[in-house]
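F.,

This is the one I mentioned.
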């Protein structure tokens, strides 16, 4: 089977609050938007934010947690100088600082922000991971 992800969907408590974080914070424009779900076309997949009760109904599940988990989504940037302004923008759009930007021992520069529902986002620059003109990151050693 081909290694690919088509859609990542995050359960959210408030669509408008979530739309503000992703729209104003990252500057992303939805490709589909209704009172229950918002989709953003990404570089090779779609990111969805779905009202938690409607997502639970769609999945035939109840009591799904919303918020932080043992994962982090990442938004990689081409330059070290891009990390902190994006983090500032996300904070202004309702995000919560999890970790101030710094240089980890393995190299690069990164910080962590949570969206309004606690979903963790790493904003990172890694000089060893090239980003092409379409925004695709290549794992390099």
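My design for it:
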């Amino acid at each position: 089977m081909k290694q690919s992800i088509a859609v990542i969907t995050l359960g959210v408590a408030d669509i408008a609050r979530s739309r503000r974080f992703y729209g104003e914070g990252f500057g992303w424009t939805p490709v589909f938007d209704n009172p229950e779900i918002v989709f953003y076309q990404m570089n090779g997949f779609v990111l969805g934010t779905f009202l938690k009760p409607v997502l639970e109904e769609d999945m035939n599940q109840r009591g799904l947690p919303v918020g932080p988990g043992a994962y982090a989504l990442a938004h990689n940037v081409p330059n070290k100088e891009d990390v902190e302004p994006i983090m500032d923008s996300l904070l202004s759009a309702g995000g919560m600082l999890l970790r101030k930007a710094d240089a980890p021992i393995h190299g690069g520069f990164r910080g962590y922000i949570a969206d309004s529902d606690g979903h963790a986002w790493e904003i990172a620059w890694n000089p060893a991971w090239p980003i092409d003109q379409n925004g695709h990151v290549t794992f390099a050693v």
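The beta strands are 7-12, 32-33, 37-41, 46-51, 73-76, 96-102, 109-114, 120-125.

Talk soon.
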